[in-house]
């Protein structure tokens, strides 16, 4: 009788990271349990047959041994099937619980510092990240601010940064104060964020002027915007203005920007440290919604002469045909 053939274990290939490793481990465990159960049942079956023959039970003893072994085989098979089903359910639960959430893209950050012309750090400046679109630079709503030593850190978006002395796209009153000119900063790619970005800012320009209205518009509040570089999506918003008041934007960028006031725009070209006077004429909003009342000039009829009735049969308003109480002569104001 030959011995069992010695099985050589085949070294598995290096699995890729992830779910495949867990599936392969579960498959190996199932094969091992099936082989162990089969070998155990076969051993019991053969031992019973040879034991029955050895004890002199003859064919009947062999038959009873086979029946008994078959019963045990059935029980073992049932146990194996149940264990396999339980192991599959356990593997499914393990797979579900072990499934990692989608990998989150790790944010990268830009670090830098802002200095003035003499090399001193500038604190309190707003640093906006954003993206360039067909409509210009669109800043994110949450800016960073430079600390007491002029440092900042902000998420990289792949676009430039915009440094300002005041918040963007928010109403800040009739005066936007700042000492340093707003400016854009070119940034490295988001894969090279270990670079330290050093930026120098210069003295800002000033834009100021009077607020007028195209018609009398007492008590009406106005708002205007200074679009940085002409980009409407990146602007300082001046609010709380009235006819006859003044506005002022200091820290305006060097170059050409646009002052916008409800459909009317004014180009302003600025230099560092320069002050530009630019008066603004606003459109009164009530003039756009009020319809002027129609006025009529009355026609006077000579006294004592009866006017001809209108062709449509309506009563005449002059002469002796006036209603009772009339004077017979139309007043110059039409209220007689």
Helix-strand layout with pairing:
Layout: H1 19-54, H2 58-98, E1 109-115, E2 126-133, E3 136-139, E4 144-145, E5 151-155, E6 161-164, E7 175-176, E8 183-185, E9 196-200, E10 205-213, E11 222-227, E12 235-241, E13 246-252, E14 255-261, E15 264-270, E16 275-277, E17 280-282, H3 285-289
Parallel strand pairs: 1-9, 7-13, 10-16, 10-17
Antiparallel strand pairs: 1-5, 2-3, 2-4, 2-6, 6-8, 10-13, 11-12, 11-14, 14-15
Helix pairs in contact: 1-2
Q: For the residues shown, what is the average pLDDT?
A: 74
Radius of gyration of CA atoms, rounded to a whole number: 47 Å
Shape annotation:
elongated
Number of helical stretches of at least 4 residues: 3
Helix content: 10-25%
Order of helices and strands: HHEEEEEEEEEEEEEEEEEH
Distance from N terminus to C terminus (CA atoms, Å) equals 140 Å
Low-confidence stretches: 288-336
Largest sheet: 5 strands, antiparallel
Total number of β-strand segments?
17
Secondary-structure content class? alpha+beta
Strand content: 25-35%
Key words describing this protein structure:
single chain; 336 residues; alpha+beta; five-stranded antiparallel β-sheet; five-stranded mixed β-sheet; 17 strands; 26% strand
What does this entry show, briefly?
The chain is of the alpha+beta class and 336 residues long.
Descriptive notes:
By secondary structure, the chain is of the alpha+beta class. It contains three helices and 17 strands. The strands form four sheets. Strands 2, 3, 4, 6 and 8 form a five-stranded antiparallel beta sheet that branches. Strands 7, 10, 13, 16 and 17 form a five-stranded mixed beta sheet that branches. The longest helix has 41 residues, at 58-98. The chain starts with 18 loop residues before the first helix and ends in a 47-residue tail after the last helix. Residues 288-336 have low confidence and may be disordered.
């Amino acid at each position: 009788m030959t011995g069992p053939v010695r099985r050589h274990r085949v070294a598995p290939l290096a699995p890729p990271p992830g779910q495949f490793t867990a599936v392969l481990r579960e498959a190996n465990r199932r094969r091992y349990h099936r082989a162990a159960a089969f070998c155990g049942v076969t051993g019991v079956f053969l031992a019973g047959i040879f034991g029955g023959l050895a004890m002199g039970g003859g064919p009947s003893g062999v038959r009873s041994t086979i029946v008994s072994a078959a019963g045990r085989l059935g029980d073992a098979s049932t146990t194996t099937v149940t264990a396999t089903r339980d192991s599959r359910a356990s593997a499914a639960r393990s797979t579900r619980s072990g499934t990692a959430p989608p990998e989150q893209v790790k944010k990268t950050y830009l670090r830098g510092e802002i200095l003035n012309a003499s090399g001193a750090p500038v604190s309190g400046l707003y640093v906006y990240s954003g993206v360039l679109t067909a409509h210009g630079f669109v800043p994110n709503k949450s800016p960073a601010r430079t600390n007491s030593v002029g440092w900042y850190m902000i998420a990289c978006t792949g676009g430039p940064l915009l440094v300002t002395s005041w918040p963007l796209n928010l109403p800040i009153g009739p005066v936007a104060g700042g000492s340093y000119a707003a400016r854009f900063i070119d940034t490295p790619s988001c894969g090279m964020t270990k670079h330290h970005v050093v930026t120098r800012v210069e003295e800002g320009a000033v834009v100021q002027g009077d607020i007028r209205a195209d018609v009398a518009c007492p008590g009406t509040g106005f708002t205007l915007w200074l679009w940085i570089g002409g980009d409407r999506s990146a602007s300082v918003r001046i609010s709380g203005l009235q006819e006859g008041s003044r506005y002022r934007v200091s820290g305006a960028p060097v170059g050409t920007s646009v002052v916008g006031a409800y459909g009317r725009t004014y180009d302003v070209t600025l230099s560092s440290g320069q002050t530009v006077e630019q008066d603004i004429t606003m459109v009164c909003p009530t003039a756009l919604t009020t319809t002027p009342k129609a006025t009529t000039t009355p026609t006077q009829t000579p006294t004592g002469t009866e006017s001809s009735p209108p062709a449509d049969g309506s009563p005449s308003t002059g002469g002796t045909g006036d209603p009772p109480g009339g004077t017979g002569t139309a007043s110059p104001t039409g209220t007689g």
